[in-house]
Amino acid sequence: MLPEHELHDLAESIKTDGLLLPIVLDPDGVLLDGRNRLAACELAGVKPTFTTCADADQTAYIRRCNVRRRHMSAGQRAMVEAMVLSVSGHSLRDHAKLHEISRTRLSLANTVLNSDPALAEKVRDAKLGLDAAHDIVRQRKAEAEAIQAKYDSLRRHAPDLAVQVTEGHLTLDDATTTLGKRQEAVRHDQQHLTSIAEHWDALQHLAHHPDTLHTRQVLDGLTAGARALADHLITLETRAEAAHQPS
Asked: Quick check: is 139 in a domain?
């Protein structure tokens, strides 16, 4: 698109002299040429006129209106050719070979065009380099994939949180933070239970020798909470042992 001040100048010209060149559409009503003229007509309050480009003329028309309009950089030319490719029906490989353009550059331009047509127009109009535009598209894709990965993780590990995100009750970041706290609590409890399991033989020894000096010293040296847990586990172990004794 033209800079705003140039667009306003064009609008004033159209208001005074009328639209001299009609807006060009393809048979499906898709704009081929005249985006600036159309925007200027809207600013000027002038009803635009349109003409339709025949199917056979579309690719040639796009190229003629862009590549030959002015000197273009390799990135601009690649973008114009990507726009032509979108209506030509050619494969990317054949199009690059036919028009003697780098297939790599054409592929980059095609990726930008398919992802964000407005960004592609900036490349075509020399407002943004092709590599910079492709970097933007790639960054957006990476961000979208990261968001999807977070949501997929929620669906696997916390379906209730995923539902709240879907319904708008929680943001994805808040839900991810909550999931992280849940998982940390799980790991914490797992570590404690693993420690108990690894030292269960010591508990069994205490249960089998409840009246020894060693047992009393061990239990007396524990905090109140640890002593209560130890007493409870020793009781369970003693009962289990008794249950296995022949009657």
From this structure: no
Span 4-8, average pLDDT: 77
Supply the pLDDT for residue 83. 87
On the CB side of 180, how many CA atoms lie within 13 Å of its CA? 7
Say if residue 169 is in the same domain as residue 68: no
Distance in angstroms (rounded) separating the CA atoms of residues 137 and 182: 35
pLDDT at residue 95 tops 90: no
Same domain membership, residue 164 and residue 116: no
Token readout for 43 is 């600013």
CB 102 within 8 A of CB 81: no
Is 138 within the bounds of a domain? Answer: no
Number of domains the chain contains: 2
What pLDDT digit, counting tens, does each position of 107-119 carry?
Answer: 999 999 999 998 9
Say how far apart CA 42 and CA 64 lie, in whole Å.
26
Neighbouring C-beta atoms of residue 79, cutoff 10 Å: 31
Contact 126, 151 (CB under 8 A): no
Where in the sequence is the domain holding 81, given as residue range(s)?
4-133
What crossing angle do the helices spanning 130-157 and 172-198 adopt, rounded to 10°?
50
Query: From the CB of residue 3, how many other CB atoms can be counted at a distance below 10 Å?
Result: 9
Binned at pLDDT 50, 70 and 90, residue 59 comes out as: low
